[in-house]
Design a protein that fits this description.
alpha/beta, 8-stranded mixed β-sheet, two-stranded antiparallel ribbon, 10 strands, binds NADP nicotinamide-adenine-dinucleotide phosphate
Length: 352
């Protein structure tokens, strides 16, 4: 057998991982801690007499919990958990106003500026900061054995928190499918919402009970599916708002203000959602694209080009999808579908 150093890089790494796993499975510790000591981080060993800085909950109690980031999610989650009987012991925010707002809404939460200072206090660390900030923040944090760290991102996996890990720590994710536009509305929306969780079995059990406290349901996603799950959520929330904005822009051409558009088109939207729930998405499709009304399609594209050119691309993208759906369910002949698609292509080219 070749020595590790003789194998090509990738094969050597794989071989090393397999061998290390076999050693671990056999219960062999290659770097044992001396008797009467324990480990912090990867390479720090302390005598057992030394106190861990963070507090420890009693068995059966909720863990000492801290939230980094007093933004939309951090604040709503903190208030909701605290009201649900899951105390929040600490918050870290760089902004004095947000820190003050958080501590005035969440009784017993101690304010910190630095995330690491919060880490010294709690057992469960929740990072509720923008996606782009999470990896950098995690690489600047040093966890202690017995702690768990989670983030609330829908786009990132729990593995981005790995740089903060030490022996005996856990990482995970807790992504509520809620639009956090307003604190009280978001707190109410936790009831009946879905929370995508990640973590090993012990942490997942804890996160499921945290979701249940909020009146939400925890789900574990299939590996590799988180980005698609989150993209769908972005279409359902932000994408739908973009659609509403386009509807309001066209409503304005017809003389309606925003409230007027919402009053008029809102029931149509709700009725369509109700139809989709009752009949299925395909069967709920109505409108000119299902009938092959090319004249109507041409009139719409012309008025959009003249009065609301910013809506043209969105209308065209939706119309293409509607044409596909209508064809799939058999209400549009292939030649009519092709003619409608050609009409859209011509209108877009003319607008360029
Ligand atoms: N908004 C939603 O509807 C929603 C829904 C589900 C999940 N999420 C996820 O939840 C997370 C937080 O989103 P959000 O909407 O709450 O964001 P946000 O309102 O922008 O709040 C972000 C918080 O992170 C802090 N922060 C920003 N940059 C930082 C940095 N460089 N270092 C340390 N802290 C920093 C902010 O500043 P201060 O330190 O100054 O307070 C603020 O408190 C994201 O991962 C997002 O994907 C959001």
């Amino acid at each position: 057998m070749k020595a590790w150093g003789d194998l090509p890089g990738e094969a050597a790494a794989r071989k090393r991982t397999e061998t290390e796993a076999a050693i671990k499975a056999a219960g062999i510790d290659l770097d044992p801690v001396p008797p009467g000591h324990h480990r912090h981080g990867v390479d720090e060993v302390h005598p057992d007499g030394h106190d861990h800085p963070h507090q420890h909950s009693a068995p059966g109690e909720t863990p000492y919990t801290g939230i980094v980031g007093a933004g939309a999610v951090g604040t709503a989650l903190g208030v909701a958990l605290s009201r649900a009987g899951w105390p929040i012991h600490a918050v870290a925010s760089r902004d004095e106003g947000r820190r003050h707002r958080f501590t005035s809404l969440v009784e017993g939460a101690r304010p910190f500026v630095e995330p690491q200072a919060l880490v010294e206090e709690v057992e469960l660390i929740i990072l509720a900061v923008p996606d782009d900030v999470i990896p950098t923040l995690a690489s600047g944090i040093r966890m202690y054995g017995g702690q768990a760290m989670i983030h609330t991102s829908g786009a990132l996996g729990a593995e981005v928190l790995a740089p903060a890990m030490a022996a005996g720590t856990q990482i995970g994710a807790f992504h509520p499918l809620v639009a956090f536009a307003d604190t009280e509305r978001a707190i109410a929306a936790f009831h009946g919402a879905t929370v995508a969780i990640e973590g090993d079995d012990q942490l997942a059990t804890l996160l499921s009970s945290m979701a249940e406290r909020l009146g939400a349901t925890a789900v574990r996603l299939a590996p590799g599916s988180k980005a698609a799950y989150h993209a769908a959520a972005v279409l359902a929330a932000g994408g739908f708002i973009a659609l509403l904005d386009a509807i309001a822009e066209l409503g304005a051409v017809a003389g309606l203000d925003e409230a007027g558009s919402l009053a008029i088109y809102g029931p149509l939207i709700e009725g369509t959602l109700g139809n989709a729930r009752a009949l299925g998405i395909r069967a709920a499709l109505t409108g000119p694209m299902t009938r092959g009304d090319i004249g109507t399609l041409e009139a719409h594209l012309a008025t959009l080009a003249a009065h609301a050119p910013g809506v043209l691309d969105l209308y065209a993208a939706a119309a293409r999808r509607e044409i596909d759906l209508a064809q799939e369910r058999g209400s549009l002949a292939p030649e009519t579908a092709s003619a409608m698609t050609a009409t859209i292509v011509t209108a877009l080219a003319r607008a360029d």
